[in-house]
Predict the 3D structure of the following.
Amino acid sequence: MKRFDQIEGLRGYLALWVLVGHLIGYSGITLSRPVALFTGATKAVDVFIILSGFVITHMMIERPEPYLPYITRRFFRLWPVLVIACLFGWLTYDLFIDALTKAPGTIGIADLLKNREASIYANPTVHILAHASMLHGAIPDKFLPGSDGSFVGTAWSTSLEWQFYLSAPAAIWLARKPNGSIFLLLICATLMFAYDRGVFGHYYRYSTIVGACGYFLIGITSRLSIEKPEASWAPKMALAISMMALLYLNPSPIIVWGIFYTCLVSRRSLKIFDAIFSNKPARYLGSLSYSIYLVHIIVLGLTMWIITRFSASLTNGQMVVALIPFIPVSIAISAIVNVTVEKPGMLLGRKLAQRLREASSPKEAITPA
């Protein structure tokens, strides 16, 4: 299968973006709008979403497989690390709340976590089942308050990713049809408009596929636009329209993806691009990016608790400096989780998928001698 090695490097930089974004955000510092556009952790997640659409489309083009083996592999790509993160997130929940209550400028986040904790105690079984199915992000607050990230705050995007995995084969099948990308664009535009108007209920974040489908569409059409350049006017048109629309609504991730994608598909060799995105440290961080994303918020909470336990009167600037060690610690712990949980889960998923493929393949008929 053709590889885009630079994508793994991009994942590494996005993971760092999330770490730095949360370091700044949880220190209570208020940034000017231009700076905030390129430091908020959610902006990095938006690029991750686009990247997911690109990668899954690439996988389905280069290595098509039946739905059941595909979804089995995808399930075990996400679920094991999510379980570990939810467990440790819950065990450290009160410590995080205590730290946020004492830290400068984070009382609002503390109140949010308190409300989520109350929701868990009110409906523990429903919250557990919702997370076990990885559909917790699809449930509106009206039915299950705070379900998008009740055990660990960053788990909302895991649910969003899983919702995409479930629907991706149908979406990509449609997009690969003549003019199908335009039809998919219309569907996504309608869903996002309805989401914005509250038709599907209220969500704290766009943790449901209907609220983020435009970003996945950019990833899908980005890959389809380079599948057959001479016959891909529909994906290119859908890509251009969706990027222009989201550029107006949320510029920074679209700018980042636009620059990266332009360099990625450039027919001229860009040595500086390869040097930045294909180097081993960036690609290694990229291989840890999923574990980093789920684990780091727990490490951040524990770091804040230790800091506020010894000094509850830090300024915002002092808190930023004090929190810096949480970044290398998060990476180190994520490396352990990657080796002990994430990779074994992926291996199990591949083995189960292979068995499913073998079970569904027609067996040779035995001809009597």
In short: The two ends are 41 Å apart (CA to CA). Residues 326-360 form the longest helix (35 residues).
